[in-house]
Amino acid sequence: MELGKTAMEALQRLLGNGHRTTLSAMRNLVLTYKRLGHYQKAIGPGETMVEASRRLQGNEHPGTLNAVAVLASCYRKLGRYQEAMELSKTVVEAKERIMGDKHTDTLDAEAIELGKGIVEASERTLGNKHPHTLLAIQNLAMSYSNLGRYQEAIELTERVIEGYRRTLGSEHPDTLWAIESLSYFKDQKCRVEETSEVLKEVSRQPYPQVHEDANQPKPAHTTRGQRLVEPIGETSSTLLTPQARPARWSLRK
């Protein structure tokens, strides 16, 4: 780590912050600090890295966006939630402008980081049971489900249901909607697991030796795996499309 810091400082003196080699050394040092949990030490070079990357590569270059995301993560670890949220928001908005409707998985992954910051800030300022905190947790659960990470979505939604039951009652529309969403996440998790098990079983089955008559027409599907995998894949794709997911929650009055 000290060697990396020395190398970066030497490159800053020789080449300046605006050189790509210096920028690469900064990034390596920041990531090393971050991996070791030295978030405060990562802030200084991290801020310099973001500023230099913006000047050298532009605000929306992938390298710049990655540098901003790393700095936002360090801010969040230090409890600087407002700064973390603002930086994360710039990353999400930039990727939406660049990619449009494409690369939704990448956007969902960024939404998770942003959502974590919002939840932590809301818990810190409003408390765990406040309706706005529960709404933030619901939205974070949806971001996890959009990436197929149903276990995380289930655990968060169970927290939301417990909170709504205590604050709003078991029959409040928000409580009932959260329960419905929990059922959906559990159903999707089971379907994914069942499909995975079937595909594993298919892959373990030996293929029969078939002696074909050269004059006989060949069937459309020639292997057991193809016959099974294709309809299963088609079903899974239908189930996991964004249109099939519940709409993002909004707090009811």
Automatic annotation (TrEMBL):
Residues 201-253 are annotated as: Disordered. Signal peptide: none annotated. This is Kinesin light chain. InterPro entries: NLR-like (IPR053137), TPR-like_helical_dom_sf (IPR011990). It comes from Glonium stellatum. It comes from the Eukaryota. Pfam families: TPR_10.
